[in-house]
Design goal:
It is built from 2 helices and 2 strands. The protein is mostly helical and 126 residues long. Strands 1-2 form a two-stranded antiparallel ribbon. A hairpin with a 5-residue loop joins strand 1 and strand 2. It is rod-shaped and about 95 Å long.
């Protein structure tokens, strides 16, 4: 259907409506992709960095334990036990961090789904 707009130009109304819907779908897709990136970045910034730091601390404990065993040979058993205990505690911290991160990711995905539903509702209204 041809109509005349406010600038007194002849415009095909159905064509403009098609472009508007395509633009809205583009915005919707962009918003959903941004939400997925946000969830992924949150996981990468929390879980991976923390696990890397804990594993680094374990390597430092191992190095200190080996150096101390070489220097103080009469306390080798005590130094070895302290190093093993420290590494075990840090290993449990990695497991705890992973569990907490998994729970946070589940909650973030639920919130992402809620936001996507809101975007769908806004699209239907608009």
């Amino acid at each position: 259907m041809k109509i005349i707009n406010e600038n007194l130009e002849m415009v095909d109304y159905e064509e403009k409506e098609e472009i508007k819907t395509g633009t809205m779908l583009g915005y919707k897709m962009m918003a959903k992709m941004t939400l997925m990136d946000l969830v992924y970045d949150m996981n990468r910034n929390t879980c991976y960095k923390m696990n890397f730091m804990i594993i680094g601390a374990q390597l430092v404990i191992l190095t200190i334990s080996l150096v101390c065993q070489a220097l103080f040979s009469e306390f080798r058993a005590v130094i070895s036990m302290a190093g093993a205990l420290g590494s075990t505690v840090l290993m449990f911290l990695v497991v705890i961090n992973t569990k907490i991160s998994d729970e946070a990711i589940r909650k973030a995905n639920k919130q992402r789904e809620i936001i996507e539903k809101c975007i769908d509702k806004l699209e239907k209204r608009g």
